[in-house]
Amino acid sequence: MLNSNNQSIKYNVIHALYNDKNLMIDSIKLLIKNKNIKIKEVYSPFPIHNLDKLLKLKPTNLSIYAFIYGLFGFFFSNLIIWYTMIYDWPQNIGGKPSFSWIQNFPSFIPVIFELSIYFSAHLMCITYLFQCKLFPWTKSKNPDPRTTDNLFMIEIEYDKNQTNSIFYFSSFLQKQGAIEVHCK
Amino acid sequence: MFDNYENYKKRKSVLITGKKSYQNITNDTLNPIIHKAGNLWWISFIISLLSFLWGVICILYTIVTGIGVWGINKTINWAWDITNFVWWVGIGHAGTLISAVLLLFRQKWRLSINRSAEAMTIFAVIQAGLFPIIHMGRPWNAYWVIPIPNQFGSLWPNFNSPLLWDVFAISTYFSVSTVFWFIGLIPDFAMIRDRISNPIQKKIYSILSFGWGGSSRDWQRFEEISLVLAGLCTPLVFSVHTIVSFDFSTSIIKGWHSTIFPPYFVSGAIFSGFAMVQTLLGVTRKVLSLENYITRDHIEYMNKIILLTGGIVSLAYISEFILSWYSKDPFEKFIYFSAKAATGPYWWAFWILILCNVIIPQLLWIKFIRRSFFWSYIIAIIINIGMWFERFDIIVLNLSRDYIPSSWTGFVPSFIDVGIFIGTIGCFFSIYLLYIRFFPVISQSELKTLVSCKKKL
Q: Based on CB atoms within 10 Å of each CB, which residue in A129, A130, B2, B201 is the most buried?
């Protein structure tokens, strides 16, 4: 695998486009065995199951964040209910005084539940947008617009100094079923 | 018999017909957005818009004059407004159910229909939310239900009240469903952004797509967030209508004070929600030429859920009827499922309910009807009507015969009641029609996972 931190080596990229998901996956399997190349990114028009495991991507931590945000929502809702109903203005409603949080707890459950879900869902989505760098005014991140339609793309980094390797990889990728190979 | 069962197990459901490729799915999603709307769309839109405007005028008249212009009285102080509220919330249930619950169960048949259903949820909840606000009489004070410091100092909303639980449940359901819907739309907006040529439209879809690229990392997170959001939405689906049912079941009105209400309301909501999905998809399928994506199998699957939830609702009706008879309570004789309800002044509403929700849906046991687009559409509309009458019966019948016979009264809706209800239907269809013109109505990125593109080298 090439070391991308090595400043003496300059990298450019090869874009290999496929029109078949299975051919692309086969190519990825072969490419990751080759230690001289680095798969920078893979673009596809739809989610491909287990591709993240094939590319050895780090598992996402969004579900853990969702749990933490849910806990935050739980404590926030408890705090606001306790402050408004018990501490600040303990009303006597229909002969049922709100002097104790625990005695009133059963009727607080719906709001606590809803706010826990509310915080969990919304804050997780915001985290997701930040992690993926998805913002309203961001330019499109896919190098080829056809990857949102019917094509799949492997973006490969290669050593600019090794010109022979460009031809080797190009012909290799085309043999593996790439319909187009672009060196940039 | 064994042979038939084996054949049944082997039979794969047909979820896309016409041998579609990835590009075909892209084009079919894009067609309604890039092409001009047909006459059918314009006629539907103008009718919907006029109905909506009628509703707006009626709402303005109500706000300016006061809710005395409605048909309500001191005994039946909730009538069409709460009926419409519960009906619309119920309709809003199927969308999230199709998206979230069926996603968790890995049901592929949801893929062609989930986007329309999700949109339906959001538009239906908007209509529902309108009724409690205008029923307040002073909608400009609606923010008092939110626990924020106000001009009266330490005056806080009552967290013991089911009406406040409604506020939190409906607003959470609405906002979480909207987020779920929008996150799913981002890859589809990116597809439109990359295909469309009109610069203004390109700019708009570019903003909406948030710069989506479809990298493996993005898809990994997308799948995770879809799954977690589905997990969060699923209890919401069940909690929202449970909480709406608490509005009734925590009261002391006979016929309302019932522990069966939460499961009964939830199944009723799914029943009516799926009926509305059938109604909308019947239109969308024809108007947008999506015959290859909304197939007989989709219709059949939805009809099976309608049969199941209709069965639960019918069982609840029977148990309510038997309990009102068995209790020998003189006031229970007048509740919405009782001998007096079937023969009293609102007998017509009772029998419409039985006919529409119990008897006619049984036709779906017949395979030919269950798989027929036409009959499914007709039955779905009948169920929509029946479910509206169910809510009407629960509210008006139970309130009309109170504990004190001197306060017994009837209810006649005013033209304002009718206008507001029709206005919400107009608003719902106007938004939906605009949505199918400008938004990707099928979840093309997810639908492409169903297509196996095989290329021989």
A: A129
Q: Which of A143, A180, A44, A28 is nearest to B448 (CA)?
A: A44
Tokens describing residue B414 = 């005013």
Cα–Cα distances in Å, from A156 out to A69, A120, B57, B172? 37, 37, 62, 44
Beta strand residue intervals within chain A, DSSP E: 11-18, 38-43, 92-93, 96-97, 152-159, 180-183
Pairwise CA distance, residues B331 & B328, whole Å: 9
pLDDT, residue B405, reads 85
Q: Tokens 């039985």: give the residue.
A: B354
In the prediction, which pLDDT does A11 show?
58
CA Rg value for chain B: 23
Is A90 an 8 Å CB contact of chain B? no
In the DSSP assignment, the letter for residue A175 is: H
- Contact A12/A158 with Cβ under 8 angstroms? yes
Residues composing chain A: 184
Predicted local distance difference test score (pLDDT) of residue B285: 85
User: Residue A57 carries which DSSP code?
Assistant: P
The packing angle between helices B80-91 and B373-392, to 10°, is 140
Q: Would you say B92 and B121 are in contact if contact means Cβ atoms under 8 Å apart?
A: yes
The residue of chain B nearest to residue A139, with distances taken between CA atoms, is: B211
Residue contact B222–A47, C-beta within 8 A: yes
CB contact burial B184-193 (16+ within 10 A = b; e otherwise):
bbbbbbbbbb
What does the pLDDT read at residue A103? 87
Question: Do A152 and A4 meet the contact criterion of CB atoms below 8 Å apart?
Answer: no
**Band of pLDDT at residue B204, cut at 50, 70 and 90:** very high
* B424-437 mean pLDDT: 93
Predicted confidence at residue B183, as pLDDT, reads 93
Report the sign of the C-alpha dihedral through residues B32, B35, B40, B42, in that order.
positive
Q: What is the mean pLDDT of chain B?
A: 88
b/e map of B210-219 (b: 16 or more CB within 10 Å)?
Answer: bbbbbbbbbb
- Selection from A142, A178, A170 nearest residue A20 by Cα: A178
Asked if A148 and B216 come within 8 Å (Cβ–Cβ), the reply is no
A151-160, B165-174, B263-272, range with the lowest pLDDT? A151-160
Helices (H), B196-255: 199-208, 216-249
Cβ–Cβ contacts within 10 Å for residue B368, how many?
Answer: 8
A115 has a chain B CB within 8 A of its CB: yes
Distance from CA of A74 to the nearest CA of B (A): 14
**Inter-axis angle of helices B114-135 and B415-438, nearest 10:** 150
In this complex, is the C-beta atom of A50 within 8 Å of any C-beta atom belonging to chain B?
A: no
Cα–Cα dist B375/B207, whole Å = 42
| Residue B133 CA neighbour count, 13 Å, CB half | 18
Q: Does residue B163 belong to the interface with chain A, where contact is any CB pair within 8 Å?
A: no
- B457 — pLDDT class (breaks 50, 70, 90): very low
ipTM of the complex model:
0.90
Q: Which positions ≥6 away from B339 have C-beta within 8 Å? A: B325, B333
